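Q: Sequence in, structure out?
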Amino acid sequence: MDRAEEICVCGGQIVKARVQARPFVEYKAVTNENGISILNRFEFIPSLEASTLLKGSGVTFQLESGEWKKVNFYLYPKLYYQITTRGISWRLPDSPISNNPLERRNIVRTAGRILLRSMASICGVAPELLEVTEDLESCSITVWERVEGGIGLSEIFRDVVSRDPQELYQEMVLTVACPIFLSEQRDQIWPGGEDQLAAYLSDQFYLPKNHPTIQHIVKEALAEFESRPHEDPDFEPICSQEDGCPACVKYGRDERDEDASEISRKLGWQIVKSCVAVTKFEEGTLAGEIGKILKYDQNGQVYLLTF
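A: Exactly. Output:
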């Protein structure tokens, strides 16, 4: 609708523009009860106080002919609300953790995004029903339900992961092995075709080439590659350039994207791989760990989840 000739209530003229807005939001979560262990590094949190602080909004706009401009609006007083809910915490493996504060922040924030997306997929809900907070000092993450009292998502996650930890690992792999990125890297990673991509992913994530997770990623990457115009001079490899995209570890323009540059697909790839340990098979040493074994190799090595 052309509103170029209308007059605003303030007396100014209304003009056409492209507008994008993003709220400035801060989340916090404080546990009310001790967590109940799930395997080695996860805990079910029966009760926690989750708070949301809406501080304002950033508005980016572009007139019909002109550059993008940005203006920030802040609320005084800020809008605050709190709920009692449930959640899942994850203490990260030691191997990807850095002593550099900036690198540590990026690792923890990326891991938070991986757990949030994986939990949403396991529970069969949209990621918007969950939120994540990070503790940089302890390198731990808490994903909580954005509903007063919770709606049972944390219990579903607890039960599924306790029964089959490999299901969580597979969802993590699906999160970081982005089909858009892989389609953009066709010439570099799998010029020989789908079988070569399956072999590459199998080597990276310690799953057999014919594993359903590997085959799903291959099909998605191939479909993505075939769907884009290969002669398009304006084509840009978004996931490769931005180190992530909304199809993997990054969201679209919403409140979680305020520090999107800290979220990294490359780091996510490393974090997921760090959840696997390689050990030598010895009779009787892996009692109770059968459900965590991803594969054996011909040299007698065992690839074992560290969850």
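The CA atoms of residues 51 and 257 lie 18 Å apart.
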